[in-house]
């Protein structure tokens, strides 16, 4: 029964995405290739002091990204520290330093890891003027960097890859903002609230009292999903009925998470002048998505484990209105897109089910991954795949007419090195340094035994891959986790961006090798299969031991 | 070539020498293994005193097998180098110092043959660029150079292995001589074109010994990828201790070293340099010298092949295929006239005319009473003036027609008919030779046309089809007119042609192809080919060619066989495929190793992980040791493949990929499951495992 | 303007950009959505408030507990699912129990025993949603199975025929969206409000 529901829901999702990816993907391509600036954009460029017609080298582009992100961190940090004096703060005090840093890093890095419980920490001003703004612009940065890389493939013999400020502006104003407004209204229609009412106390039927919270939720929820941010307005995120009231809003939010990531391959294909290349990438993303979804759902329906067996099913941490299929669909979407929103508690999933959400993030957020970040992530793996496959056909490997030489491979190798290093070193340090281990085991870990280890592993995996979801039993608001996860998020976001932009610059400077019968075709099912194989093998080889020591050891009993 | 076991025995001392960390450092993957081996050895030595969780036999066994892993890797390289060394030894024997007669004050204008100039005996090693020497029959040529005067037959077997002597003469494209080759006849004056120690043979020795082998871009890129994979696995293993420590399941250091060595791509790391050396070696066995490994790899990337028509696509010489008479001329008249005028023509064309005539009934007279009129560039015809005043002329249509008109021949229909006939032959790719005869006192009489045909070598069309399937475009270069060129291009099956090509045209064509991102390969021998050879990504100079051509190209074909370009392309591809295949195999192997080692490491603490022991290995100790042994033995097992190269058959990239993924990817996943299981069955017989 | 050249230039641009972005995305955008929501969809935008006798009694989307002051379940009301948040909507929270957590197992055992005792059912027949906490701690729904399971107890406690209560439950049972999205549900607050009006 659940399996049938899943198939029906998945089929609906596929249908919706099949309909929208084409116009949306083409619109994205137009947005980033059109020479025309809107009047409001020209006004913006004048105000901030940018010449929209000047093209940037990859270095200049990168300096823009880093400067903007640093200013963003400082901005969000300052807003939290000043919360006590800001309007609409619901009486909450200033956020402590460590937590403020962690949250600022988190939202600027498009991660939206939340070491805090928003219900009891943040007023409306920090949420909308600090966090929601980053929800837009951090997504815009991801999109801009992806487009810069695509330009690297599309252009030839040039030193420039676009203008960061123009890309950011167009991503935000032409794509995210209009979609967010429409989506927010749709969500309100489904029951998501949008007010500044604060907490309202009511008298219940039993004569007791109950609280109805308020807040500008819909505007936040829309961009949280659309920008693959995932930071909940409320502590329980999209499980909260005011964030995600009905099964159909649940599907709508899933569509919002997938809309841009699954359209970007089309954009990519359009911009490099061969949509088949985009569809090959899309196919690899789709295969991984469906396989992962099937596995997670199977594990949850199976309901293995002492607790679920005793209760008669894996419903702990899941909402009745969603049940298992709508929860696993959401969980897969959220963890495989770098959104990190949850409509059910991953900490309470079955051991192997929880492992699947972990595995989704370990894939590197590429199937389809976060907005922009997913596309550049999978293109990096495609570069590695083409390199090995290119050798196998006896040619200096080339992808989309670009030779993959030592420089390109060095950048791609460092990229695939970065996140596993952050995840494994962060997790290991949590247990290697005695006072930290003491603190982690006594304060942070919630579930005893192997599951507790998985909570820590999940935290670093989520932070380094910029997902933001959690095995939320973990108490992360400690000096160690605020600092370590904050750094993991920043490094996990910006080291790859540096490498991607450098690669974009190096590709753009190359000419283009023409396609011949001796060229490895990168648009056929053969390549899709190879790409999926490389992704799975590289991830499995990197993380097999830690998974064995966490969810596998717990689940295989 | 000796067999592999004896090569391995010969390579052993070198392999041991290579254990020096200073040398190992250059191969990061194997350096990690060596450090691990040393570390485990220290652990094994210390274990009796400080204790440990593993049995002493286990720690020692791991240490020994890790050393063997390093040794096997070095052995692969030594064996590959050893093959080159044998060739180098042969070459070195040609380099033995000889005395040379150096001309003092050579005067090229006044005394080109240096008959009057005085000579002085110097050691060949002391000769330098620009010196001039005299070499006579029986002497060794003391250094690389160009013949500036004289002609000689030369035995080049020392470098080409070809025993038949070759003729070298001054001027033209056959003037280059190589140091160490022997003059068999005559006397030549040679200008030395190489510096001491940088002669062709010197370079050749360095190349085959691998001493001057520089890493190619692809090799560097692959090394980077392998190094970063090694770092990932290093981090995986280094972090495993504290992580497993949380569950009190931290494995022993020896086990973690074993895991690390099994995970890092040792198979390809061990064989990578052997593959490169063997690739160069294969070229040498084809009698091709590549000046750099980069050139070999570029050969695999070639997308455009420029081939000279003559000698490559067609046999060097045109042959007479048909006599076509004009209206009113009897067949035997034309046949006899053509044959008589060709009797003393030594060129292959001339001979082929006589041969053709003979098959049609022409009888060769004992002697011809007359005077030969040789072909000159001015007259563009040749012929014979008989003692009785009869004249026969044969040559280019315009030249013979002009001669006939001079003698008073008239008749526009006749000339029109002739022109039609020559055009038809040209359009078929042939060369028309017009034959005319003139009785004394009378105007010349046009007899007809000899159809000289370019004979396309057999099997060329199918080879070009193969190249096309590999994605390589072939362009025929010819001095012929476009009509002729087109016909031959069609017959040979090339993709394109460049007619009436000048050296400048060739260069322009290469540049144009390169601007479109294509990689161009070409062969050449003449001095005027040098710019194009230098411009081409792969320029193969013929050994018979000039020094200028050999300098400009990045490969030299000792056999001077232009069709070898196709083999060179295949060798380049094979080199890359072998690297890719072993990389894929190496990484795919890791899957099985995990299934051997992870349950062995942790099943004691987490019995559930015993489910992952799908191979049913005997015990944790035997499982880990078996994985390590497999990892070492697979290097030895793959040395022959690394040296021989993966089989390459020309087909589309897509099909090659499918095949190689199946063999080396899927095979790489499956093979170690079987291998480790078999080794485990053996290891389990050892007490204590 | 020397500082706007060279190294500092992108920071200066970024600062100005951030101010503009905050005004447009941080203020104008939510206020615009607020305007649309309050004008076009005020009921939803303000929390889908359920009123009893004109007084707000809660939100149909936010679950409530139907217990006495000591937290003991009142048998005359349909009970919501267990909640890690105690249905305190000012601080939503989940249990985050892992599948092998001994506390989790103990709580399930305890709930099983309590429900079996209060509702007089075989512990094996208790629906899974009655034994597990939701993700939000504010789940407004229970499964039809759990509602049906409570019918007898509620009817008994209220002294009304089981059939009337059952009819009420059936009318408040919602199918899946489009027939395959989510799970069938019964909204506990709405059911209990109807139940209270049934008597009145």
TrEMBL record, chain A:
Protein's membrane topology: Multi-pass membrane protein
Database matches in InterPro entries: KdpA
Keyword field contains Transmembrane: yes
Top-rank taxon: Bacteria
Primary localization class, coarse: membrane
Keywords: Cell membrane, Ion transport, Membrane, Potassium, Potassium transport, Transmembrane, Transmembrane helix, Transport
Subunit structure: The system is composed of three essential subunits: KdpA, KdpB and KdpC.
Family assignment from sequence similarity: Belongs to the KdpA family.
Protein name per its UniProtKB record: Potassium-transporting ATPase potassium-binding subunit
Organism: Herbiconiux gentiana
TrEMBL record, chain B:
Keywords: ATP-binding, Cell membrane, Ion transport, Magnesium, Membrane, Metal-binding, Nucleotide-binding, Phosphoprotein, Potassium, Potassium transport, Translocase, Transmembrane, Transmembrane helix, Transport
One Pfam family recorded for the sequence: E1-E2_ATPase
Residues where Mg(2+) binds: 525, 529
Catalysed reaction equations from the record: K(+)(out) + ATP + H2O = K(+)(in) + ADP + phosphate + H(+)
EC number(s) recorded for this UniProt protein: 7.2.2.6
Transmembrane segments: 29-50, 56-76, 220-241, 253-277, 594-615, 621-641, 661-686
Main location: membrane
Active-site residues (renumbered): 308
Organism superkingdom: Bacteria
Location of the P-type ATPase A domain: 118-209
Membrane topology per record: Multi-pass membrane protein
Amino acids binding ATP: 345, 349, 375-382, 394
Subcellular location: Cell membrane
Protein family (similarity comment): Belongs to the cation transport ATPase (P-type) (TC 3.A.3) family. Type IA subfamily.
Subunit structure as annotated in this protein's UniProt entry: The system is composed of three essential subunits: KdpA, KdpB and KdpC.
Function as written in the Swiss-Prot or TrEMBL entry: Part of the high-affinity ATP-driven potassium transport (or Kdp) system, which catalyzes the hydrolysis of ATP coupled with the electrogenic transport of potassium into the cytoplasm. This subunit is responsible for energy coupling to the transport system and for the release of the potassium ions to the cytoplasm.
Protein's name in the database: Potassium-transporting ATPase ATP-binding subunit
Gene: kdpB
UniProtKB/TrEMBL annotation, chain C:
Intracellular or extracellular location(s): Cell membrane
Keyword ATP-binding: yes
Record-given protein name: Potassium-transporting ATPase KdpC subunit
One of the Pfam families matching this protein, by short name: KdpC
Main location: membrane
Family: Belongs to the KdpC family.
Taxonomic source organism: Herbiconiux gentiana
Transmembrane segments: 12-36
Assembly, per entry: The system is composed of three essential subunits: KdpA, KdpB and KdpC.
Coiled coil residues, start to end: none
Signal peptide region: none
Topology of the protein relative to the lipid bilayer: Single-pass membrane protein
Keyword field: ATP-binding, Cell membrane, Ion transport, Membrane, Nucleotide-binding, Potassium, Potassium transport, Transmembrane, Transmembrane helix, Transport
PANTHER family attached to this UniProt entry: POTASSIUM-TRANSPORTING ATPASE C CHAIN, POTASSIUM-TRANSPORTING ATPASE KDPC SUBUNIT
Function: Part of the high-affinity ATP-driven potassium transport (or Kdp) system, which catalyzes the hydrolysis of ATP coupled with the electrogenic transport of potassium into the cytoplasm. This subunit acts as a catalytic chaperone that increases the ATP-binding affinity of the ATP-hydrolyzing subunit KdpB by the formation of a transient KdpB/KdpC/ATP ternary complex.
Tagged with keyword ATP-binding: yes
Superkingdom assignment: Bacteria
């Amino acid at each position: 029964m659940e399996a049938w529901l899943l198939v029906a829901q998945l089929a609906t999702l596929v249908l919706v995405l099949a309909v929208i990816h084409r116009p949306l993907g083409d619109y994205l391509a137009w947005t980033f290739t059109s020479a025309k600036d809107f009047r409001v954009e020209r006004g913006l460029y004048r105000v901030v002091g940018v010449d929209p017609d000047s093209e940037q080298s990859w270095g200049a582009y990168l300096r823009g990204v880093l400067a903007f992100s640093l200013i963003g961190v400082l901005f969000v940090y300052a807003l939290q520290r000043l919360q006590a004096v800001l309007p609409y703060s619901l009486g909450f005090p200033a956020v402590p330093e460590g937590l403020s840093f962690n949250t600022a890093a988190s939202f600027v890095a498009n991660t939206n890891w939340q070491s805090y419980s928003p219900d009891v920490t943040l007023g409306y001003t920090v949420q909308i003027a600090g966090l929601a703004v980053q929800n837009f612009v951090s997504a815009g940065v991801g999109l801009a960097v992806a487009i810069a890389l695509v330009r690297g493939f599309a252009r030839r013999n040039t030193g420039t890859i676009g203008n960061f400020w123009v890309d950011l502006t167009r991503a935000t104003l032409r794509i995210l903002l209009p979609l967010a407004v429409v989506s927010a209204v749709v969500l309100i229609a489904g029951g998501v609230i949008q007010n500044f009412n604060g907490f309202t106390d009511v008298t219940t039927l039993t004569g007791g009292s109950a609280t109805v919270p308020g807040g500008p939720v819909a505007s936040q929820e829309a961009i949280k999903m659309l920008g693959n941010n995932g930071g909940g307005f409320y502590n329980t995120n999209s499980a909260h009925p005011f964030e995600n009231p009905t099964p159909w809003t649940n599907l709508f939010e899933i569509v919002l998470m997938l809309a841009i990531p699954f359209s970007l391959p089309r954009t990519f294909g359009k911009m490099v002048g061969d949509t088949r290349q985009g569809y090959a990438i899309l196919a690899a993303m789709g295969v991984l998505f469906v396989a992962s979804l099937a596995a997670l759902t199977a594990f949850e329906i199976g309901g293995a484990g002492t607790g679920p067996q005793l209760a008669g099913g894996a419903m702990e941490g899941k909402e009745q209105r969603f049940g298992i299929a709508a929860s696993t669909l959401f969980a897969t979407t959220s963890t495989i897109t770098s959104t990190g929103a949850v409509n059910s508690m991953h900490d309470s999933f079955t051991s192997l089910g929880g492992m699947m959400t972990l595995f989704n993030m370990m894939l590197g957020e590429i199937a389809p991954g976060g907005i922009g970040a997913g596309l550049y992530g999978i293109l990096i793996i495609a570069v590695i795949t083409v390199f090995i496959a290119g050798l196998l056909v006896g040619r200096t490997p080339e992808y989309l007419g670009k030779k993959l030489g030592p420089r390109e491979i060095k950048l791609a190798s460092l990229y695939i090195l970065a996140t596993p290093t952050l995840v494994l070193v962060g997790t290991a340090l949590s247990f290697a340094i005695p006072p930290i281990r003491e603190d982690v085991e006594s304060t942070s870990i919630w579930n005893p035994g192997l599951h507790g280890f998985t909570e820590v592993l999940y935290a670093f995996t989520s932070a380094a891959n910029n997902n933001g979801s959690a095995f939320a039993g973990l108490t992360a608001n400690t000096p160690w986790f605020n600092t370590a996860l904050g750094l993991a998020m920043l490094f996990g976001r910006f080291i790859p961006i540096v490498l991607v932009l450098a690669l974009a610059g190096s590709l753009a400077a190359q000419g283009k090798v023409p396609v011949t019968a001796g060229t490895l075709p990168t648009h056929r099912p053969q390549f899709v299969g190879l790409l999926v194989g490389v992704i799975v093998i590289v991830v499995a080889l990197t993380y097999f031991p830690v998974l064995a020591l966490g969810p596998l050891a717990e689940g295989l009993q | 070539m000796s067999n592999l076991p004896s090569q391995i025995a010969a390579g052993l001392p070198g392999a041991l020498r290579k254990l020096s960390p200073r040398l190992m450092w250059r191969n990061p993957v194997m350096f990690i293994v060596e450090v691990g081996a040393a570390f485990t050895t220290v652990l094994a030595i210390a274990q009796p005193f400080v204790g440990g969780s593993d049995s002493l036999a286990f720690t020692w066994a791991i240490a020994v097998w890790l050393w063997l892993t390093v040794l096997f890797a070095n052995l692969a390289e030594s064996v590959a180098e050893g093959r080159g060394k044998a060739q180098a030894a042969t070459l070195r024997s040609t380099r033995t110092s000889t005395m040379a007669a150096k001309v003092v004050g050579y005067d090229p204008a006044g005394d080109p043959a240096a008959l009057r100039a005085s000579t002085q005996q110097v050691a060949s090693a002391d000769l330098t660029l620009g010196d001039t020497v005299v070499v006579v029959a029986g002497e060794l040529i003391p250094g690389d150079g160009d013949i500036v005067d004289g002609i000689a037959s030369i035995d080049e077997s020392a470098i080409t292995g070809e025993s038949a002597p070759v003729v070298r003469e001054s001027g033209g494209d056959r003037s280059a001589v190589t140091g160490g080759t022997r003059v068999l006849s005559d006397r030549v004056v040679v200008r030395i074109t190489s510096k001491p120690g940088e002669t062709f043979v010197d370079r050749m020795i360095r190349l085959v010994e691998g001493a001057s082998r520089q890493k190619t871009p692809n090799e560097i890129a692959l090394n980077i990828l392998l190094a970063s994979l090694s770092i990932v696995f290093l981090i995986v293993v280094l972090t495993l201790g504290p992580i497993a420590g949380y569950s009190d399941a931290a494995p022993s250091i020896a086990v973690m070293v074993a895991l690390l060595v099994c995970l890092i791509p040792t198979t390809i790391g061990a064989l990578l340099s052997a593959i490169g050396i063997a690739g160069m070696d294969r070229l040498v066995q084809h009698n091709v010298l590549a000046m750099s490994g980069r050139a070999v790899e570029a050969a695999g990337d070639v997308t455009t092949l420029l081939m000279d028509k003559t000698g490559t696509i067609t046999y060097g010489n045109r042959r007479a295929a048909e006599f076509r008479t004009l209206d009113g001329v009897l067949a035997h008249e034309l046949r006899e006239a053509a044959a008589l005028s060709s009797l003393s023509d030594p060129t292959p064309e001339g001979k082929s005319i006589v041969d053709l005539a003979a098959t049609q009934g022409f009888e060769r007279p004992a002697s011809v009473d007359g005077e030969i009129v040789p072909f000159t560039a001015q007259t563009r015809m040749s012929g014979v003036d008989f003692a009785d005043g009869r004249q026969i002329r044969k040559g280019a249509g315009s030249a013979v027609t002009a001669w006939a008109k001079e003698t008073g021949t008239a008749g526009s229909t006749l000339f029109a008919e002739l022109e039609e006939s020559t055009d038809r032959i040209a359009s078929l790719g042939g060369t028309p030779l017009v034959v005319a005869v003139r009785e004394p006192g009378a105007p010349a009489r046009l007899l007809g046309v000899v159809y000289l045909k370019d004979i396309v070598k057999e099997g060329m069309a199918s080879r070009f089809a193969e190249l096309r399937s590999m994605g390589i475009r072939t362009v025929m270069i010819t001095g012929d007119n476009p009509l002729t060129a087109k016909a031959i291009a069609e017959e040979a099956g090339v993709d394109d042609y460049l007619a009436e090509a000048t050296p400048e045209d060739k260069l322009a064509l290469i540049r144009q192809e390169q601007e479109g991102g294509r990689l161009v390969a070409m062969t050449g021998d003449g001095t005027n080919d040098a710019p194009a050879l230098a411009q081409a990504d792969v320029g193969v100079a013929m050994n018979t060619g000039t020094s200028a051509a050999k300098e400009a190209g990045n490969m030299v074909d000792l056999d001077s066989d232009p069709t070898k370009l196709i083999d060179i392309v295949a060798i380049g591809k094979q080199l890359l495929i072998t690297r890719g295949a072993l990389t894929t195999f190496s990484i795919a192997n890791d899957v099985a190793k995990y299934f051997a080692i992870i349950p062995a490491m942790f099943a004691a603490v987490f019995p559930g992980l015993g489910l992952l022991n799908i191979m049913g290995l005997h015990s944790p100790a035997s499982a880990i040791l078996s994985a390590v042994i497999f990892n070492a033995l697979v290097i030895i097992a793959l040395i022959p493949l690394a040296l021989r190269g993966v089989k390459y058959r020309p087909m589309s990239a897509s099909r090659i990929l499918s095949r190689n993924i199946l063999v080396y990817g899927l095979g790489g996943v499956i093979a170690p499951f079987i291998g480790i299981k078999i080794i485990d069955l053996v290891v389990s017989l050892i007490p204590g495992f | 303007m020397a500082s706007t050249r060279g190294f500092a230039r992108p920071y200066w641009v970024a600062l100005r950009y951030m101010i503009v972005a905050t005004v447009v995305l941080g203020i104008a955008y939510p206020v615009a959505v607020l305007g649309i929501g309050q004008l076009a969809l005020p009921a939803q935008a303000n929390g889908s408030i359920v009123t009893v006798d004109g007084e707000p009694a809660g939100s149909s989307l936010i679950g409530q507990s139907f217990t006495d002051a000591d937290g003991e379940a009142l048998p005359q009301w349909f009970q919501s699912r267990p909640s890690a948040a105690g249905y305190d909507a000012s601080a939503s929270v989940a249990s985050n129990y892992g599948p092998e957590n001994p506390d989790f197992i103990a709580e399930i055992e305890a709930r099983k025993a309590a429900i079996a005792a209060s509702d007089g059912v075989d512990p094996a027949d208790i629906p899974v949603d009655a034994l597990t906490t939701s993700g939000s701690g504010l789940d407004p729904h229970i499964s039809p199975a759990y509602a049906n399971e409570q019918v007898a107890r509620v009817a008994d406690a209220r002294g009304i025929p089981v059939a009337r209560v059952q009819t009420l439950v059936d009318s408040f049972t919602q199918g899946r969206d489009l027939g395959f999205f989510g799970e069938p549900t019964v909204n506990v607050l709405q059911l209990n409000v109807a139940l209270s009006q049934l008597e009145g």
